[in-house]
Design brief:
The complex is a heterodimer. By secondary structure, chain A is mainly α. Chain A contains 20 helices and four strands. The chains are: A mainly alpha, B mainly alpha. Chain A: Its EC number is 7.1.1.9.
C-alpha cells in the first residue's frame, strides 16, 4: 500500500491541512473560515436589530453599537463574502478549465493564511480594548480621532488579509489564462470561470488603492502623519476617494462570481444551454470596467460640484444596461426550459426579483439630486442589503446546495433546503423591505437608538422579526450541512444535469484532479459527451502518464504567522508604556522574511506521481468498497 | 519516456545562423530605440532650457513622456514581441490598468478641492 492511500491520524490530518497546497483542501478551508466569520457578523447584526427593536432601547451601549456596525460591515464584506466566494473559485475554477491545480499552489496557500490570520487579528480587537468603531468605510475625519486601538486593528488586519486577497486574485488570473485544457478557448469557458477572471482582475486593480489608503491611515495614526488632517494641510476627502476607488469595485468583485454561480445553476436546472453566452461574457467585462468609473457616486453629498456629480450619475446609470442584459439572459434561459425546481434553482428564482429590486433602488440613488435626500438614511441600508443578501448570499446558499457533492461527495437534504430557503427568503424581505420606508421617513443609518412617536416603531419591530427569521434560516442551513456528514456518497453528477467539466470528474476527486487532461470540444463539454453517450464523461487529450505535483509546505503559514505577530508590535508601538512592542515587531518581520528567504533559497521541484501509483489510488477510490 | 519530458536536440548549422541573424536584428532595434529615448529626453530638456512659454512646455513635455512610456513598454518590456504567450491578454490588461489609473489621476486633479 502506498503512502497516498493510507488512513491518517488526527494530528497528521491537521498538519496536512496547515501545509496543504491542494486547491480543493484550501477551498474547504475557505468555506469553513468564511462560514465562521459569516456567523460572527450575522450574530453582530442580530444584536443590532435587537437593540433597534423598540425605541429608546438600552440592550447595547452607543459605543458598542458603533463597534458592532463597523465589524458587521467589515467582516461581511472582507472576511465572509470574499472567502466564501474564494471557496467556490478555488474548488471550481481548476476543475472547470481542466487543470490539475491553480498556477501557483504555494501562493494559494499563502493567500489563505494571510487572509485568515488578518481576520483573526481584526477580531481579537473585541478582547483587546475595543473593536474599530468608525464604520466599515472608516472615514478619516472620524477614524483619526477614534480613541484606543480599534482603528489600528482595522488598518493592520485589513492590510494583511488584503494582501492575501490580492495574491489569490493574481493567482486566479494566471490560472485561468494559462492553465486551460486543450480546446478550452476563452469563449468556451464556463461563465463562473469568466466571472472569476473578471472579478480577479478587479481585485488586481482595486486592492492597491485600498493598500495605499490604509498605509496613509497607518502613518496618520501611528507616526503623526498628516495626509488626512486638514489643519496641517492634508485633506480628509482623499481617504474617501481612495476608499471608494477600492470600495465600489469591491461590490462587483463579490457580485460577479455570484452572477457566475447563478449562470451555472440556471442552465443546469432549465436543462438548456445558457441563453446569450457571448453577451453574458461581454456584459461581465463591461460591468467590471464600468465598476471603476463610478466610485464618486458614494460621495455625491461631499460637494464635488454639479459637473462631477452629473458625470458619475450617468456612468452609474450606464451599469444598469449590462446588468439588465444579464437578467434578461437568465430569464430567457429559463424560458421554455424543462425546469426542475430544486433548492439551488429555488434560490436562483428568488435571486432574480430580489436583485432587480436592489438594482432599481441603486438607479434611484444614481440620480444625484435624489441621492441628496436618500444619503445616509435607511434607504441606503435597504438598497445594499437587497444587492448583497439578495444577490450574493442567495448565490452562496444556492451554490452550497448545488456544489456540495463536488466539495464533499455528499448531497444536502432537499426538503430541509427548501424550508431553509423560504424561512430565510421571507425573513430577508421582512427585514429589508420595510427599511426602504424607514429611510424615506427620515431614519438615519448608523444610529444606535431613536425616539418614539416618529412612526418608525412598527417598521423597526417588523425588521427585527425578519432578522431573527434570517438567523433561524442560517441555523437550518448549518444543520443541513452537519447532517450531510452522515449522508451517502453522492457519486459523479448526482443532479443528473451537470454540463461542465467539474461534473465529469469521478467522485471523490483524487488530489491530482484529472487522471489525464481532458479535451474540450465545445461549450458545456460534459453535456456534449453525455449527448454522445460517452460513459467515460470525457475525451482525453493525452495518454495516461506520470503526473507532476507540488509538494506541501508549511512556509505560507509561517510567513503569515510572522505578519500576524509583527502586527501586534506595530499596533502597540505608539504607546509610550509598551517599549517591548518594537521587539515584537522585529521578531515578527524576522520570521516572515526568514521564511521568505528559505523559500527563495531552497529549490522545491515538487514530485512525480507514477502511473502505477495513480492506478493504485484509483483502485482504492473507485474499486470495490471505494467511492467514500 | 513520458509525455512531459522535454527532448534536447542539438542546433543545426542553419538554425544557428538564423538565430545569430535574428539576434543581430534584435540588438539593432534595441540600440535604435535606446537612441530615440535619449533623443526625446534631450528635446525635453532643450525645450525647458530654451525658455519657451509654459503653455507650450507643459503639454509638450507631457506628450513626450507619453511617447516614452509607450516606447518603454513595447521596446524594452517586450509587449511588441509576438512570440510572447498571451501577449494580447497582457497588453489588454496593461492598457486597461493605465486607463483606469488615468481616470483616478484626472479625478484627483479636478474634483478634490483644498
Amino acid at each position: 500500500m502506498s503512502s497516498y492511500t493510507q488512513k491518517k491520524g488526527f494530528g497528521a490530518t491537521i498538519w496536512d491541512y496547515i501545509t496543504t497546497v491542494d486547491h480543493k483542501k484550501l477551498a474547504v478551508m475557505y468555506l469553513l473560515a468564511g462560514t465562521l466569520f459569516f456567523a460572527i457578523a450575522g450574530f453582530e447584526a442580530l444584536l443590532m436589530r435587537i437593540q433597534l427593536m423598540k425605541p429608546n432601547n438600552d440592550f447595547v451601549s452607543a459605543g458598542f453599537f458603533n463597534e458592532l456596525l463597523t465589524m458587521h460591515g467589515t467582516t461581511m464584506l472582507f472576511l465572509a463574502a470574499t472567502p466564501l466566494l474564494f471557496a467556490f473559485m478555488n474548488m471550481l475554477v481548476p476543475l472547470q478549465i481542466g487543470a490539475r491545480d491553480v498556477a501557483f499552489p504555494f501562493l494559494n496557500s499563502l493567500g489563505f493564511w494571510l487572509f485568515f490570520l488578518g481576520a483573526v487579528f481584526l477580531h481579537l480587537s473585541f478582547f483587546m480594548g475595543g473593536a474599530p468603531d468608525a464604520g466599515w468605510t472608516s472615514y478619516a475625519s472620524l477614524s483619526l480621532y477614534s480613541p484606543g486601538h480599534g482603528i489600528d486593528f482595522y488598518v493592520l488586519g485589513l492590510q494583511i488579509s488584503g494582501a492575501g486577497t490580492l495574491i489569490s486574485g493574481l493567482n486566479f488570473i494566471v490560472t485561468i489564462i494559462t492553465m486551460r485544457a486543450p480546446g478550452m478557448t476563452f469563449m468556451r469557458m464556463p461563465l463562473f470561470t469568466w466571472t472569476a477572471l473578471v472579478s480577479s482582475a478587479l481585485i488586481l486593480f482595486a486592492f492597491p488603492p485600498l493598500t495605499i489608503g490604509l498605509l496613509m491611515m497607518l502613518f496618520d495614526r501611528m507616526f503623526g502623519g498628516n495626509f488626512f488632517d486638514h489643519t496641517m494641510g492634508g485633506n480628509t476627502i482623499i481617504w474617501e476617494h481612495l476608499f471608494w476607488i477600492f470600495g465600489h469595485p469591491e461590490v462587483y468583485i463579490l457580485v460577479l462570481p455570484a452572477f457566475g454561480l447563478f449562470s451555472e445553476i440556471i442552465p443546469a436546472f432549465s436543462r438548456k444551454r445558457l441563453f446569450g453566452y457571448s453577451s453574458m461574457v461581454f456584459a461581465t467585462i463591461l460591468i467590471g470596467f464600468l465598476g471603476f468609473m463610478v466610485w464618486a457616486h458614494h460621495m455625491f453629498t461631499v460637494g464635488l460640484g454639479p459637473t462631477a456629480n452629473a458625470i458619475f450619475a450617468v456612468a452609474t446609470m450606464a451599469i444598469a444596461v449590462p446588468t439588465g442584459m444579464k437578467v434578461f439572459n437568465w430569464i430567457l434561459t429559463i424560458w421554455g426550459g424543462s425546469i426542475k425546481v430544486t433548492t439551488p434553482m429555488l434560490y436562483a428564482l428568488g435571486f432574480i426579483p430580489s436583485f432587480v429590486a436592489g438594482g432599481v433602488t441603486g438607479v434611484m440613488q444614481a440620480s444625484a439630486p435624489l441621492d441628496y435626500q436618500l444619503h445616509d438614511s435607511y434607504f441606503i441600508v435597504a438598497h445594499f442589503h437587497y444587492v448583497i443578501v439578495g444577490g450574493i448570499v442567495t448565490a452562496l446558499f444556492g451554490s452550497a446546495h448545488f456544489y456540495w457533492p463536488i466539495f464533499f461527495n455528499r448531497m444536502l437534504n432537499e426538503t430541509l433546503g427548501k424550508w431553509t430557503f423560504w424561512v430565510f427568503f421571507i425573513g430577508f424581505h421582512l427585514t429589508f423591505f420595510v427599511q426602504h420606508f424607514l429611510g424615506l421617513m427620515g431614519m438615519p443609518r448608523r444610529v444606535f437608538t431613536y425616539m418614539e412617536g416618529q412612526g418608525w416603531d412598527q417598521f423597526n419591530y417588523i425588521s427585527t422579526i425578519g432578522a431573527l427569521m434570517m438567523g433561524v434560516g442560517v441555523i437550518m442551513m448549518v444543520i443541513n450541512c452537519l447532517m450531510s456528514i452522515k449522508g451517502k456518497p453522492a457519486g459523479r453528477d448526482p443532479w443528473g444535469d451537470g454540463r461542465t467539466l467539474e461534473w465529469a470528474i469521478p467522485q471523490p476527486i483524487p488530489f491530482y484532479n484529472f487522471r489525464q487532461t481532458p479535451l474540450v470540444r465545445g461549450l458545456d463539454p460534459y453535456w456534449i459527451e453525455k449527448q454522445e453517450g460517452n460513459k467515460e464523461g470525457m475525451t482525453y487529450a493525452e495518454p495516461l502518464g506520470d503526473i507532476h505535483m507540488p509538494n506541501n509546505s508549511a512556509i505560507p503559514f509561517v510567513i503569515s504567522l510572522g505578519m500576524f505577530i509583527a502586527a501586534f508590535g506595530a499596533l502597540y508601538n505608539p504607546d509610550a508604556d509598551k517599549p517591548w512592542s518594537i521587539y515584537v515587531l522585529i521578531i515578527g518581520l524576522a520570521i516572515t522574511f526568514g521564511a521568505m528567504i528559505v523559500r527563495s533559497v531552497k529549490d522545491d521541484h515538487g514530485f512525480h506521481l507514477h502511473k502505477e501509483e495513480i492506478l493504485e489510488i484509483e483502485e482504492q477510490l473507485y474499486g470495490k468498497g471505494g467511492n467514500k | 519516456m513520458s509525455s512531459h519530458d522535454t527532448p534536447v536536440v542539438a542546433k543545426s548549422q542553419a538554425q544557428y545562423e538564423y538565430d545569430r541573424h535574428h539576434n543581430a536584428v534584435h540588438m539593432r532595434k534595441q540600440v535604435i530605440n535606446f537612441a530615440i529615448m535619449i533623443f526625446l529626453t534631450f528635446i525635453a530638456f532643450a525645450v525647458v532650457a530654451a525658455d519657451f512659454s509654459k503653455y507650450l512646455i507643459f503639454p509638450f513635455v507631457l506628450l513626450l513622456a507619453g511617447v516614452q512610456v509607450v516606447l518603454q513598454l513595447y521596446a524594452f518590456m517586450h509587449l511588441e514581441d509576438k512570440k510572447t504567450h498571451f501577449g494580447g491578454v497582457i497588453g489588454f490588461f496593461m492598457w486597461m490598468g493605465i486607463l483606469i489609473a488615468f481616470t483616478f489621476f484626472l479625478a484627483f486633479l479636478t474634483i478634490i478641492w483644498w
